[in-house]
Amino acid sequence: MRWLAAAAGGLAALGWFAAAFAHAEPERATPGDGAVLNTPPGEIVLVMTQEMARQAGANDIDVLDAQGNEVTREPAVIDPADRRRLSVRLPADLPPGEYVVRWKTLSAEDGDTATGELRFRVDPSAAPERGRELLKESMLGGGPTPAAVPPPAVTGGAGEVGWVLVAAVGAVLFVFGLGAGVVFSRRDT
Ligand SMILES: [Cu+2]
Questions:
Q1: Structural domain boundaries of the chain?
Q2: What residues form the membrane-spanning segments (predicted)?
Q3: If we measure between CA atoms, which residue out of 89, 110, 109 comes closest to residue 43?
């Protein structure tokens, strides 16, 4: 029983940490981060890692051109059937150029806010590229290994460092939880 309690404590600590770390951040993006498109996309679609809170102005996508001017003319909307899906329509006459996709979310699961940026380029004469469409993988799930999907060096290596940190802190919390479980089970006896 003691080890059962200890394992439960460890798992509880790990689960708490995983939930606290994961905000509503893009898991998938269309177009992908760093995409090169021959024609402007009709919309930007981001599927988040958590459900978003339906609160006016709390979740949005702004698309900015190379001069920093906003080109989106309407707010982003959460899919009525899927609270993880946020999308915004783009003007049909979007000229060629570099664009920044600036997003913000309010998680319905833990109330955390998050922000970030993605990029795409419209260039009628360039070779098209899909960019990085899968941005995050489930922490405990399977999916392709990092070696199979090398992340493009478009936005820097912060994500890589982040996951190493997550693994390290998660391990420490797991051990801490084990200890707490042992203490509690000893108190019972
Ligand atoms: Cu969170």
A1: 1-21+161-189, 23-157
A2: 161-184
A3: 89
The CA distances from residue 95 to 45, 125, 167, in Å, are 19, 13, 43
**31 preceded by a cis bond (ω within 30 of 0):** yes
Distance, CA 106 to ligand 1 centroid (Å)?
A: 9
What is the token pair recorded at 102? 């600036």
* Mean pLDDT, residues 82-92: 97
Please enumerate in sequence order all residues whose Cβ is within 8 A of that of 25, keeping only pairs 6 or more positions apart, or say none: 48, 49, 50, 105, 114, 116, 135, 136
pTM summary value: 0.67
pLDDT digits (tens, 9 = 90+) for 47-71: 999 999 999 999 999 999 999 999 9
CA of 78 from ligand 1 middle (Å) equals 18
Contact 129, 122 (CB under 8 A): no
Give the CATH fold of the 23-157 domain.
Answer: Immunoglobulin-like (2.60.40)
Of 183, 43, 29, 50, the C-alpha closest to 119 is 29
Pair type for strands 97-106 and 60-64: antiparallel
What is the 183 CA–ligand 1 centroid distance (Å)? 29
